[in-house]
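Standup notes, structure subgroup. Blocker cleared on the adenosine monophosphate input:
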Amino acid sequence: MQTSISKTNCLFDSIFEPTRNSSSTFLINDNKEISYIDFHIMINQLANVLIKKGMRVGDRVAVQAEKSNTQIALYAATIKAGGVYLPLNTGYTSSELDYFIKDSSAKIIIVDKDVENIIAKNLEANTVLLTLSSDETGSLTALAEEQETFFDTVERGPDDLAAILYTSGTTGKSKGAILSHQNLLSNTKVLKEYWKFTKEDVLLHMLPIYHTHGLFVASNLLAYVGGSMIFLPKFDIEQALKWMNKSTTMMGVPTFYTRLLSDSRFNHSLTKHMRLFISGSAPLLAETHKEFEDRTSKKILERYGMTETNMSTSNPYDNERIAGTVGLPLPGIQLRIADDKGNEVEQGQIGIIELKGENVFKGYWQMPGKTSESFREDGFFITGDMAKVDKNGYVTIVGRDKDLIISGGLNIYPKEVETIIDEIESIEESAVFASPHKDFGEAVVAAVVRKNEAIIETEIINYLSDKLAKFKQPKKIIFLDSLPRNAMGKVQKAELRKKYQKLFND
Ligand code: AMP
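Run returned:
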C-alpha cells in the first residue's frame, strides 16, 4: 500500500510523481515494456536500498554502469530519497573513476560487476559499493527485490542539489557541474512547450544516460509529459530502422543522422509519420541537414546546450529551422555575445556566448576559483563557445574559444575554414586546428576525411584560394579515415592538436 506523500521535493514531485498511478507504458525495450506504475515500484524499492545503505540527504550516489531501465529508475530514486545523482561515462577507466569517487566523496558507488574488485581496493571504509550489470543483475537489483514497494519522498527545495555531472574537460581536471532541482525542472518545462511534447509521444532513445542529453533532455522530458521511450542500449542502425515506425520523435547526436543517411533503407516512407527529429551536443553540418530534408522532407531541429546550462537555444518548432544555426535563445534564457571582457559585441560580430537564466548551473563542485572565473559579476555564465547572431536572432556557433587559431596575430575561426572545405564534392568532413609554428605562432592545419581518395592536397588548397584569405588557408592537409570523436559525436580537437604538434617545429 502506498503511503501519502506529505513533503515536497521540487524535481521528483513535478517530473515523476504525477504518473505514479498511470498504467501507460514508460520504457520499451527489445523484449519488454515497463508501465509507469511498475517504474514507480522500481523507484521505491531502489530508494529503500539507498536509505538502508546509509545514504542521507545531499549524499552523492555515483553510478558507472551500462544503460538500463534500472539505471533510469535509480536516478529518480536518488532524487526521491534526497540524494545527488552522479552518473559517470562508461568509457572512464578505473583510475579515472577513483578520481571522481574521491573528488565527489560519494557515499554510494554503483559499478558493473567486472570492475567491482578494482574499485573496492581504493574505497574509504564508510563508502558502500554495489553492482549493476548490463543485464540488470547485481547486488543493487538483488537488494531492491527484497524491499517494500512504497517510499516517502524526502523534502527538497528548488536550490538544493539534484545532480553532479563531470564535464568532458579536454584540459586539466574534469570539473563537476552542480545542477539544482530548479535548473533541471525549469529546462524540462521550457522544452515541453517549445518542442510540443505530450503523453502521446514515443521517443526513440539511443543516447547514453550518463550525459545531459540522454538523461535530462530526453528522460526528464518524456517522464514529465507521461510519454514513452523506446529505450535502446546505444545507436545501432538495424535497431533504429526497426523501431522508427513505432516512434513519434527522435533525439540524436549528428553522427546518428549521418549514419541513418548512409543507409538507403532510411527513406521518406519510414519517417513520414515522425513528428520531430532533434539534434545536438555537436555541430550538425548544414549539408547533413539538407540531405536529411531531401531524403525525408523533414527538417532536423538543431538545438544547443551544455552540461553546465542544460538547453539554451533551439531552432523553432513552427517557424523556420535554419541549417547551420542552433536557433534562438529559449524562453526565459538571456544570451549575449561578448568580448573577452564581457562587453556585448555588435550584432553580427563574433564573440563568446554568455548565458543567464534558471537553466544555468550553480558552479563547479568544490572549485570556488573555477566557478567565479566562469561567471561575470552580473551573473552571466561564460560558455567558451564562440558564435554570432544574425539580425533575426538566430545563433551560429563558430567553435570553442580554445579552438580559435591565432596565426601571425590574426584570428581564424576553424568553422569558417571547415565549411568551405566541406563544400568540396570529394570531401566527407574536416576538422581545422592549430599546430605551433615558429614564424606564425600557430599554423592552420586541416584534418580531412575523403569520399573519394583521388583528391589531393593541392586541389583542396586551389579550391580555397579564391574563397579564403591566404592566412586562413591550411598550411598542411592531413588525410584521415575518420575524425576522432567521443561518444557524444564531438570531434576531439585536443587530440588532433596533440598528435600533430610537431608538424612545423621539429
Ligand atoms: P557537453 O557539456 O558535453 O554537453 O558539451 C557542450 C558543448 O557541446 C557546448 O559547449 C558546445 O561546444 C557543443 N555543442 C552542443 N550542442 C551543439 C550544437 N548544436 N552545435 C555545436 N556545438 C554544440
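Discussed briefly. DSSP finds 16 helices and 25 strands in the chain.
Next: hand off to the docking folks.
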